[in-house]
Amino acid sequence: MNPRAMCIECLSRQPSALLEAALWLAAEHDSTLQPALVLEQFGELQRQIDAALPSLPPQELAQPLLRQLSHQGFRQDDSPLLMPRVALLHRVLQWRCGQPLSLAIIALELARRLGIALQGINFPGYFLLRVPGADHLLDPCSGRRLYPQDQRELLLRTQGANAKLQAGYLQVASDQNMLQRLSRNLRELHTQADDYLAALKDAERVLQLGEPSAPDHLARAHLLEQLECPQAARFDLQRAMLLTEDESLRYQLAQRLRELQQSPAIH
């Protein structure tokens, strides 16, 4: 199987194999990556974390687990210009530096292996974690507890002054949700790096992994136009028109489609 097919196969297992799926995702961008070897090396990190955890009931070990990851050097990359490696799991494991989502995937894999209950939370702008039933969320980069007021402050910081905390922002993310969000992150990072072919792989994976949005189709259309394939972008522009409720955007897309219709075909 190719890396994309292997990624999807990992997600179809019961239970799914989140970290392995993320490694196969990364293998689309690095042909030298061997997920089986990285998983074998991951076992050593698991043993180190397990040995350092305090003797507490499993339901109380999520925060100590995250703190031990921090002690091991895992941290958020706060560089002004992020590179794709912050979302490629083999690079995150190598450099111990990444985005909240990539660090959360590592924590979730360790938690599953060690029998610690932990869930991913699809918070906008900053992926979070939660122990089922807890009255707080956890920062995957530090283990800090985030109560509702902290969550509001984080939302304002990442989404702007008009953002309001909503119940939908606290929903548990499935493994497929996480891989789709990771693909969106990589799509943006590769686009910022002007690597449009790599970004197109991510954009296509986003559409394959779950229900796409109008912005997802617009992102792929933009990449296709950057790669001088404007006619191929028509499908995504049409899908975006169907999915959006923004009348102004619909008008702009209709205008763009008319321009493409009138453009001479290049043979």
Automatic annotation (TrEMBL):
SUPFAM superfamilies per the UniProt record, alphabetical: TPR-like
Keyword Coiled coil: yes
Keyword line: Coiled coil
Domain Protein SirB1 N-terminal: 39-183
Name used for this protein in its record: Protein SirB1 N-terminal domain-containing protein
Family, as annotated: Belongs to the UPF0162 family.
Cross-referenced InterPro entries: SirB1_N, TPR-like_helical_dom_sf
Residue stretches in coiled coil: 172-206
